[in-house]
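Throughout our pipeline, every protein is held as a single compact record rather than as scattered files. The remainder of this section carries one protein's record, kept here as part of the documentation.

===
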Amino acid sequence: MPSTAPASRSPWRSLRYRSMRWWSAANFVSNAGTWMQLTVQNLLVLQITGSAAATGLSMSVQAAPALFVSLLGGAAVDRWPRKLTVAVSQALLGAVAFTTALLVALDRIDLTSLMVLAAVTGVIATVDGPACALLGNDLVPVADVPSAIGVGALVHSAGRLAGTALAGVTVGFLGTGAAYAANGVSFLFVASVVPFLRPAPGAGEEPAAVAPASPVRAEMTVREGLSFFVRRPRLVALAGITGISSVFGRNYGLTLAVLVTGPLAGGAGAFGTVSTVLAVGGILGAVLGARLRKPSVRTVGLLAAAGALLQVVAGLSPSLAVLLVLVLPMAIVESVSDTAGTAVLQTDPPPHLRGRVLGVWSSIGTVWSLGGPPALGLLMEWAGARGALIAGGLIIAGSIAGGLLVRRRGGPVPLTLAAREGDVTGREALGTAA
């Protein structure tokens, strides 16, 4: 009997495919342009208004559509051809960037026009975000999706660093409008690459798949995506784990800033060192997460609980040196957990529902991002920085442990869903059981 070569666990295995290499390069260019624009946009609002509050408002206006329009955006992603959707949304984002650059060059930009353009960008992003994420996954076999997600996280981090650095250089030599124009070019570059992308052999196929059921009606409603999400125990569990972790365990920019500058008597430089270690840990975690082949909600939960316990110990740190030792594994565990959770989220639903599921997730995530910091701030007011870290970590770990106990006693709840023609519904190969 011939021996079978072991499947690759390399974090870079998704880059074996030519289209994935081109897609990653295009995403790096696009991320660099986006972060260049975001950096310059904050400076531009400050220049126009001189108000930090107005700067925060412009960011909120751009993020707000994710709360209200993401469900419709996800439905559009499910309804329209993926490559066409990405190409058109990227072109539209480029048009917004070029419009802003022109208004800046003509000195016709004001706060109102900036807010309108930010809102338009946010609306387009509700379609562009899930479409781009799913297009990248469509290019590789299912077993390599975690690698594609991990590579995407690395590309995002590298693009953020490059874009932030280039923003200052571009503004200094060419002016503010040039940064927006450069971002417009980056979007057009992505749109020009998309038509040439080809799925790798085996992409979209899953072993041990069951035969698809009879096709459902052609309409793709938002209600169908919501119904699937709330009736899918593993996705509800994933949302719970991610939500409670986001509120009580991931706002390190707030909790660790207060801990370092308060009880540990450090300054801005010390917190900058902590932030650098967090960034390095995030990159290392993305590499480790890309090695996963069978991510599961259980994996996400165990990693989140481990990170929460590290957070508890960090809250007890007697010195900055001890905190730095703990911050690196905290960031690594969080990043691996994020990669595993994203892989489950993007591969668990059947193909015809994935856009809407990501739309539901985007709406939920916006609620966390808006409500988490104020809730954590109140906890810090009551318990202090150390108390917030310790209490938050215990809440996360205790909630996850309680959820695992309830699941063991209750057992899994099956969900039957009619499939569209051509969908593959067997998920055994991914091992995504909670």
Notes: Residues 234 and 366 are 20 Å apart (CA to CA). Residues 1-5, 206-218, 421-434 have pLDDT under 50 and may be disordered.
